[in-house]
Design a protein that fits this description.
- The chain contains 10 helices and no strands.
- The chain is elongated.
- It has about 260 residues and is an all-alpha fold.
- It has one domain.
- The relative contact order is 0.15.
Length: about 260
């Protein structure tokens, strides 16, 4: 589970709640009509903008931001080097026995192509096509959250305008102006909170996760092609370490020594 996402949402919500609770009028921050305008309007506009199937899939997309634990690139390198060592000792066909021990479906497909003697250019084309499809799916989920992050403040403003119109319609009773203005403005607050605590940050986290996964899959492609070409396991490791940040690369070097 990604604790940073959960802690960030809780922390932002908690600090805003404390600020509200320390003020003089807590009741003015709660409005059922404002909730319906912001939440209902955002969901409705999203349904208009995207097919129902894609909107329903957002639950699974959001789950990736909270529960997705990406595989470690350093562990992936260790697995590929182990496969390279076996291929070096026993031949490329011997690594077919390693397929059952591979947890990564992407790596398993690539190793199977290498065992089958598929041309390196074909392996690269197939795996990069798979990688491109993954990036496109991730970009779609990110875009939907960004869209909802744009809709939420807009419907907050719509709710505010509705409240102001209702307030102006009852100017004959000055005692209701203060409460009417508070309810009108709280709708804008709901829209801004929903966009800036939930939708836009989730889009950013999904983009980060996608880049991480894409970089790891590129590492896998290079590793498989190196194994197929018969590179020395040490050379395979050195090639793949270039995908890691310098600080992690130094750590890997110390481990190897």
């Amino acid at each position: 589970m990604d604790l940073a996402t959960l802690v960030g949402i809780i922390l932002a919500g908690l600090l805003i709640s404390i600020t509200i609770l320390t003020g003089p009028g807590v009741a003015f921050f709660f409005s059922l009509g404002s909730v319906m305008v912001v939440f209902g309007g955002t969901i409705g506009a999203t349904l208009i903008n995207y097919p129902l199937k894609e909107v329903l899939a957002l639950i699974n997309v959001a789950r990736n931001a909270f529960f997705s634990v990406p595989a470690s690139s350093s562990e992936t390198i260790d697995v590929l080097v182990r496969v390279a060592e076996k291929a070096r000792r026993e031949g490329i066909l011997a690594i077919e026995r390693e397929l059952e021990s591979l947890d990564d479906p992407f790596m398993k497909i690539g190793v199977q192509y290498a065992v089958d003697g598929t041309e390196p250019e074909t392996i690269r084309a197939i795996l990069e096509s798979e990688l491109g499809g993954m990036e496109e799916r991730h970009a779609q989920g990110k875009k939907m959250f960004e869209t909802m992050g744009a809709f939420a403040p807009a419907f907050g403003m719509i709710g505010t305008l509705i409240g102001l119109i209702q307030m102006l319609a009852s100017l004959d009773d000055p005692s209701t102006i203060g409460s009417g203005m508070a309810i009108a403005l709280v709708t804008t607050l709901y829209g801004s909170m929903l966009a800036n605590i939930l939708f836009i940050p989730l889009a950013g986290k999904l983009e980060f996760r996608s880049r991480e996964e894409a970089r790891r899959k590129e590492l896998v492609v290079e590793g498989i092609l190196s194994i197929q070409s018969g590179d020395n396991p040490r050379i395979v490791r050195e090639k793949l370490l270039t995908f890691l940040p310098p600080q992690e690369r130094k750590y890997e070097d110390r481990d190897k020594e």
